[in-house]
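Researcher: Please predict.
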Amino acid sequence: MGLLNTKWEATYGKHALTVSRSELTRGFTFECDGREIAKKAWTLVGLGELEGTMKVASDESYRGAEREVSYQVLIQTGSECEIVVDGTKLDVRLVS
């Protein structure tokens, strides 16, 4: 955990998920494969929650197939971050 920035990573299937929190910009972002999915700012402390849907590669055999899945990102006190995708709680690791 950095002094002003915190970053967590997880994987969902073949997808790389990243949550980044910045005390300088007073917000956090959620990315899938380097593409920003959502972002949020806060007013007092670096805690918050994001919910929504995102498109990910489908398990279908043909190329380019996508499906929509729900996600929930919850940043709690300290260095705790929880990511749930399509109802599955992911193993999240603190990177910095």
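Model: The chain has one domain: 5-91.
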